[in-house]
Design a protein that fits this description.
With 204 residues, the protein is of the alpha/beta class. The chain has helices spanning 17-32, 53-60, 70-87, 105-114, 161-171, 190-199; strands at 3-8, 37-42, 91-97, 121-124, 128-131, 137-143, 175-181. The longest helix has 18 residues, at 70-87.
């Protein structure tokens, strides 16, 4: 039975366009794959550990810096528990509104916790980084108020979709689709644009 995880990074879950589009997409997937198991992870209600000095020191032991003592191991165990839960899913849908050109800080914190050597990626001095999540798929739902791909830089720059695409590649998720509602403010009829996005959704 395939398992899908919807990661919500907007604090406005009830009013979020990224969540609305993602939920419509997921409903289409469920109609196409009736056995699909869907879970939702709202990052604003998740008790995430701080990626503090002990966790950073534990991470660096994988690169040959320092040693894994009892304190660092305890801190690392928190990281592993959250990451292994994430890895148990086959499909990921990320609802990602643009914040100041980038991603919401709760999403960045979550990714900083789970993006660890030996868990989501490996490293070789010659070949560089390589992902460990082979065979998994993702969908990015990207929204923004003013920015749009190809727009003049006076409307912003994309450290949002570009960052998420880079991250997916880093951890080895090669099959990724993107749904956009950009912009949502500088448009003559935002509701019509949103209906057009929702109407184009097709089961994958």
């Amino acid at each position: 039975m395939p398992k899908l995880l919807h990661i919500i990074s907007s604090p406005r879950e009830d009013a979020s366009k990224s969540v609305q589009i993602a939920e419509a997409y997921i409903e289409n997937r469920k109609r196409a794959v009736p056995t699909l198991e869907v879970d939702t992870l709202n990052l604003w209600s998740l008790d995430m550990p701080e990626f503090d000095g002990d966790k950073a020191a534990a991470k660096m032991t994988f690169f040959g810096v320092g040693e894994m003592d009892e304190t660092r191991q305890s801190a690392w165990d928190q990281v592993v528990a959250l990451t292994e839960k994430f890895k148990s899913y086959d499909l990921f849908v990320f609802s990602v509104p643009m914040w100041n050109g980038g991603v919401p800080y709760k999403l960045k914190q979550f990714l900083d916790i789970i993006t660890q050597p030996g868990l989501l990626f490996g490293f070789d001095p010659i070949k560089g980084y390589f992902g460990l999540l082979d065979g998994k798929k993702a969908t990015l739902v990207l929204t923004s108020g003013v920015f749009a791909p190809g727009a003049d830089e006076k409307y912003g720059k994309d450290f949002h979709g570009e960052y998420m695409r880079w991250w997916l590649g880093l951890v080895g998720i090669q099959e990724a689709s993107i749904l956009r509602f950009q912009p949502s403010l500088l448009t003559a009829d935002a509701e019509a644009d949103l209906r057009a996005v929702l109407g184009e959704l097709e089961p994958a």
